[in-house]
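Practice problem: predict the structure.
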Amino acid sequence: MAASLLCFTLLTVRALRNRKEVSGSEWFLIAEGGLAILSACVTAAGRLQSGVGQAHAARYQTVALLYWSSFFALALVSIWRWRPSVLKSAQLVLLAILLLSIDGFPGVWRMRVAEADSLRAACTAVMSEHYTKEQASKLFPAPEQLGQAINFLRERWGAAHKRKRE
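Answer:
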């Protein structure tokens, strides 16, 4: 990840230095990648108080996908500009990387589903008031502070359930 950020920065600096040679689609890719990086930084700063575990939440994968797609597209465009004859080889290498990653997908999927099931079970236990400290710590790094959040959610969910019934 750090290497990709360095490469992305270098590609952006190169684009800024050679503005006349940069196409509109390249500017779009730079803007999209920059937005993804900025969004990830702002989200990380906001979630810092919730612990490192928040960084692994699946809901943040969309931003990462935007970054990686813009990064690899920008890299392919840069390779094509630098040496057009190498583009086909670079595309094949990228395709091979993607195909090789397919093998690991089922394991990652199973891990994510197990984690989501564990979090759902902990959330259900916490919301029903019959929970252990271990279950609460899965949801929040400081379980003793969960009381206020639980009361808030119960009020919100109670109001939502009332509206559905009416």
